[in-house]
Design a protein that fits this description.
- It is a single chain.
- With 182 residues, the chain is α/β, with parallel strands linked by helices.
- It has 9 helices and 5 strands; from the N terminus they run E-H-E-H-H-H-E-H-E-H-H-H-E-H.
- It is globular and about 40 Å long.
């Protein structure tokens, strides 16, 4: 089984990458779902503050690689030739996936701050921040989890400052190439 991990700053296009891959028939494991489920189980609303606090708590209690370990079984359950992992936030998680899946490839999605802020304002998810200050705070929190180190560990980089059509073409080419063994 080949595993593709996707890493990027908030609103860089990780979710869109996953939608495109899913549309191509690739199973997707979303790391954030582990956190969303923990927040729901705790009876809390899925706000940015609650999701961030739960992610910090899981990492503090179980280690910086806790969420990756919680996803390994979900990845193996997919039993597909290619599986995508969405939402890697740190280098400890990358190390877990590289150890567990020898054919793991990490893809970094690079998107400018203004473009990410614009996308956050447009998508209006319950955990989204709508201001530059809020996005900077979220960036800082996620960089504190090792996101900057994970970005540096990427095997492949995709720029996502263009149109959705351009991004879709890049992701489709990458996924199809990985399916063929390129």
């Amino acid at each position: 089984m080949k595993v593709i991990g996707v890493v990027g700053l908030p609103a860089s296009g990780k979710g869109e990458f996953s939608k495109i891959a899913e549309g191509l028939g690739i199973p997707v494991v979303v790391m954030g779902d582990v956190i969303r489920n923990a927040v729901k189980k705790a009876g809390l609303p899925p706000t940015d503050e609650n999701l961030g606090a739960m992610a910090n708590r899981l990492r503090a209690e179980r280690g910086m690689d806790a969420i990756a370990y919680l996803c390994v079984d979900a990845i193996n359950e997919r039993s597909a030739p290619l599986v995508l992992v969405d939402g890697i936030r740190g280098d400890a998680e990358v190390r877990v996936f590289r150890k567990q899946f020898p054919t793991f490839h990490l893809v970094a999605i690079e998107t400018s701050f203004p473009k990410r802020l614009e996308r956050l304002r447009e998508r209006k998810r319950s955990d989204d921040v709508g201001s530059a200050e809020g996005l900077l705070t979220r960036d800082k929190r996620e960089l504190g989890w090792g996101l900057g180190h994970a970005l540096k560990m990427a095997d492949i980089r995709i720029n996502n400052d263009g149109s959705l059509e351009e991004f879709t073409a890049k992701v489709t080419d990458l996924v199809r190439g990985m399916e063929r063994g390129a």
